[in-house]
Amino acid sequence: MAKKALISGASVAGPMTAYWLARHGWDVTIVERADSLRLGGQAIDITDAARDIVRLMGLEEEIKSRHTGEKGLQFVDTDNVAIAKFPVEKKGAITREIEILRGELVDILVKATPETVTYRYGTTIRGLESLADAVHVTFDDGMKETFDVVLAADGMNSATRPMVIGKHDYERYLGCWSSYFTIPRQAHDNDWWRWYTSPTGVIAFLRPDNQGTMRASVNFLSADSNPEHMSTNDKRKRLRARLDGAGWESDRIAEALDRVDDIFLSPLHQIKSATWWRGRCALVGDAAHCPTPYTGMGTTLAIIGAYVLANELGTNDAPEEAFLAYERKFKAFATRSQKLPPGVPDVAYAQSRFKVKLINSGAKFAASSPVQAFASLFDSADKADPNNFDLPDYKVPAA
């Protein structure tokens, strides 16, 4: 009889883990608290060994075909004048070769999972009882089922994580909040990622997508690390308050919030736990090792971690042995990938016009021709980015 796995969360790590478990013959159920697949979110990139994994899945070309079309990064002033430009091919560019909307990547991954994977929306886990040979699960509707393993892939703010490893101090608050949402495109918008630093302590982004709209992000410093539950209207009010008087496109973004329902707004925490598993339950993706968007490694880590975890479960008879191997092979890399650039996030925020000038001057200097020419001496343009993670070679049954 096939082994049964329950996964909490249908974002990137959940479907990715399900895909590889199903390749090993497992019956997989994914529960997602949202009533349908959540297809919103910002542009994300796929780097390092994660590129090899999507290639193994036969998904690389489809993912590349859905590129957002973003040309690179621009630092802009309050009049929307570009102070510094970092095209895709330039040193310091954050836009990558594989740049795709989070929702489009999720859609691709979910469609790639075999028919043996079952998705249940509008469902959450209420309780777990991990025994020697099984895990008894209670769902929010009172239903109870038994699985061989349970995996938490429900993100930075995972509700399943404390059920798996208990409640302890594994959250490192970075002192700032971030938001993502979609707004209408206007005639003056371009295909660059525009970064605006306000003297009011706000950083705002506008990024193009391949759907004729713009992806907005509003980020700000805050001492509030653990807010109460926020409704969509609560999120609108908080964002409008931070955008008030910020300059640039802040009025346009604030006005657009009235017609926006896909608002993500949350304090940013890095997740650093001593262990990722207990008994027959384990963590994967941001639930295990959220690095925050400041590292640009969240999606890459989710893909690699899911691949390692699922294939260790598929090639080990005992879940405990698989979880130990998963940590041994992947945790050091995930921990290194959480390292933030010096001074981030504090150095990126400004609460005076003088500091805005310093930040923009620094960006202009980094984008200058002499600096770019010097940086190019240490990199070969025709050499692909090397993998820092040595991907294990598993014997996976044919799809």
General description of the model:
Helix 1 runs parallel beside helix 9 (298-315), helix 6 runs antiparallel to helix 7 and helix 9 packs antiparallel against helix 10. The chain has 12 helices and 18 strands. The protein is globular, with a radius of gyration of 21 Å. Helix content is 31%, strand content 25%. Helix 1 links the parallel strand 1 (4-8) and strand 2. The chain has a domain at 4-69 and 101-171 and 270-337: FAD/NAD(P)-binding domain, CATH 3.50.50.60.
What are its keywords?
399 residues, FAD/NAD(P)-binding domain, seven-stranded mixed β-sheet, six-stranded mixed β-sheet, 12 helices, 31% helix
Overall body shape: globular
Rounded mean pLDDT is 92
The major pleated sheet works out as: 7 strands, mixed
CATH class of the domain at 4-69 and 101-171 and 270-337: Alpha Beta
Q: Give the name of the CATH superfamily of the domain at 4-69 and 101-171 and 270-337.
A: FAD/NAD(P)-binding domain
Number of helices: 12
User: Helicity range of the residues?
Assistant: 25-40%
Distance between the termini: 19 Å
Architecture of the domain at 4-69 and 101-171 and 270-337, according to CATH? 3-Layer(bba) Sandwich
